[in-house]
Design goal:
Length: 333
């Protein structure tokens, strides 16, 4: 009954006369194209709601509602095609089947690795585990690995990372060059008291914006995810962030009393400065030479008291440049 009532109210609200909505808005039209062209790079087609959800806002002078975005999609003179509720560039209808297949793959990956996330959530000083990249966007391929963003208790970066990588190594879950399928890539750890990561942005860094926007919290201790989004509230100037905290709970790990007690006990045993120093020394010693050489030479490999980030060889400049090149076909710059 409640679901039926909600559906009725939603349909009624979304069926308001289009006369109340501004028509022929050039800025909104451009923002919609920017959004769809970007996701096309990743063979991903969007629904009306997702166009609104991921709407690129950098050049917009005000917030647009879902109704406005929907009406613009339906009535503006776009060089877009749509079918089965998806919007895509001309000639890209194949993305519908790709989208459905990858969504099923993503669902299976979540099911197969839930036990891993459940275990990781019990490791000492881990306060947030968020899925990012292709799995977070439900655009995963069979051969894809699983990327994690981890927030830890201040002053415990190396300890938390040590136990995380130790677990992944024991169960042979770390990705290798020729074997990444369903492996866990834990390459970003950050202290809870330093959640603003705006300093990692490059010029016109659309990849970073959507990377952050698509975070999916799988374990969230004491609402750290909402703190993360609040500290990075600058993101709303680039992409819609409405309902980001409220609608990210369906796959979260829920710990019972015994699990929380076990985690607290493990933390108490490991809550010594010498353990943090020892785990740092061990990890730095075995760190690959390539990472050591690029350490703190830019924003790809960052090692300091607030952050451990290992994204060497990232292609976000390439994604940005290709996006801007593709846009020229549809938007007069």
């Amino acid at each position: 009954m409640l679901a039926s009532t909600f559906t009725t109210l939603r349909d009624l609200a979304f069926s308001l006369p289009t006369l109340i909505l501004p028509q022929n808005n050039k800025d909104l039209r451009q923002a919609i194209l920017q959004t769809i062209v970007y996701f096309d790079q990743f063979d991903f087609t969007l629904t009306e709601w997702e166009v609104y959800k991921y709407l690129w806002r950098k050049d917009l002078n005000r917030q647009f509602s879902f109704l406005e975005v929907r009406e613009a999609l339906r009535f503006e003179n776009f060089e877009l095609a749509n079918k089965q509720g998806f919007y895509f560039l001309p000639g890209r209808e194949v993305l519908i089947n790709i989208r459905k297949a990858r969504q099923n793959i993503a669902s299976q990956k979540y099911k197969k690795t839930r036990w891993v996330f459940n275990f990781l959530s019990k490791l000492p000083f881990v306060e947030l585990i968020a899925i990012c990249n292709s799995l977070a966007g439900e655009n995963a391929k069979e051969e894809s690995d699983i990327d994690l963003f981890v927030v830890v208790k201040p002053g415990k970066l190396w300890t938390a990372r040590f136990y995380t990588l130790l677990f992944l190594r024991i169960f042979k879950l770390r990705p290798k060059k020729n074997n990444k399928q369903d492996k866990i890539c834990a390459n970003f750890f950050i202290n809870r008291d330093q959640l603003n990561i705006q300093n990692l942005i490059i010029k016109d860094d659309i990849y970073f914006m959507y990377w952050l926007r698509q975070f999916t919290p799988i374990y969230d201790r004491d609402s750290v995810f909402c703190d993360l989004m609040f500290q990075n509230k600058w993101l709303k100037d680039f992409v819609n962030t409405d309902y980001l905290c409220a609608l990210n709970g369906r796959r979260k790990i829920r710990q019972n009393f015994l699990s929380r007690l076990l985690k607290s006990s493990i933390e108490l045993i490991n809550d010594f400065n010498f353990i943090e120093k020892l785990t740092a020394k061990i990890q730095l010693k075995i760190m690959p030479t390539e990472l050591k050489e690029n350490m703190n030479q830019g924003i790809e490999v960052v090692v300091d008291d607030q952050m451990l980030k290992f994204h060497h060889g990232h292609k976000k400049e390439q994604f940005r440049d290709q996006w801007q090149k593709n846009l020229k076909r549809y938007i007069s710059c």
